[in-house]
Amino acid sequence: MAEIYLAGGCFWGSEKYISLIHGVLETEAGYANGDTENPTYEEVCRGVTGHAEAVRVLYDADILSLELLLDLYYDSINPVSLNRQGNDFGTQYRTGIYYVNEADLPVIKESIDRLQRLYTKTVQIEAEPLRNFSPAEEYHQKYLDKNPGGYCHIPAAGFKKAAEANAADD
């Protein structure tokens, strides 16, 4: 089982989107790479903690490569937007890839370099080691499953694409 943390704006949509990808075993919404321990949603939203809304992703690397996972992640964000995704803005909505396995860094860097070649503007995705992660409050976990009409910056077609991306590859 492999592990990576992805920040892609509001974690409600990011968690749902990533959870649909074949080979993803578990997701958890939370707060990553901030300056405080165990922040609350309200503190993160006030922008005083330095955390990004992020998703802890456990996946089967035999089924889903990190390269494909990152390519699908890029499809769910605007990679040239700084501290903003959809209608949400602030440093907590920044995009980032936070790794726990140092061997993932060359894959991440090559992936971001490949992505950058598609844009004239600078890609605004952080790529850093995970410093810390705190799970979000329970009402945020699987939020869009509990609240199907809830706000999401990812269009419905994106969820379908994530679910079908590599399902036939096994």
Question: Could you give the topology of this structure?
Answer:
Blueprint: E1 2-8, H1 11-19, E2 24-32, H2 41-45, E3 52-59, H3 66-75, E4 84-85, E5 88-89, E6 95-99, H4 105-116, E7 125-129, E8 133-135, H5 143-146, H6 156-164
Parallel strand pairs: 6-7
Antiparallel strand pairs: 1-3, 1-6, 2-3, 2-8, 4-5
Helix pairs in contact: 3-4
Could you please describe the fold and organization of this structure?
The chain is of the alpha+beta class and 170 residues long. The protein has a single domain (2-160), classed as Peptide methionine sulphoxide reductase MsrA (Peptide Methionine Sulfoxide Reductase, Chain A, 2-Layer Sandwich), CATH 3.30.1060. Helix content is 29%, strand content 24%. β6, α4 (105-116) and β7 (125-129) form a beta-alpha-beta unit. α3 (66-75) packs across α4.
List keywords for this structure.
alpha+beta, Peptide Methionine Sulfoxide Reductase, Chain A, 6-stranded mixed sheet, two-stranded antiparallel sheet, globular
Brief account:
With 170 residues, the protein is of the alpha+beta class.
Which oligomeric form is depicted? single chain
CATH top level label? Alpha Beta
Strand content: 15-25%
Distance between the termini: 16 Å
Arithmetic mean of pLDDT: 95
Q: What topology, given as strand order, has the largest sheet?
A: 7-6-1-3-2-8
Might you state the CATH topology name? Peptide Methionine Sulfoxide Reductase, Chain A
Estimate the helix proportion, in percent.
25-40%
- Count of distinct strands: 8
Radius of gyration: 15 Å
- Helix-strand sequence: EHEHEHEEEHEEHH
Assigned CATH architecture: 2-Layer Sandwich
Which ranges are low-confidence, i.e. pLDDT below 50, for 5 or more consecutive residues? Answer: none
**Major sheet characteristics:** 6 strands, mixed
How many independent structural domains? 1
The CATH superfamily is identified as Peptide methionine sulphoxide reductase MsrA
Class by helix and strand content? alpha+beta
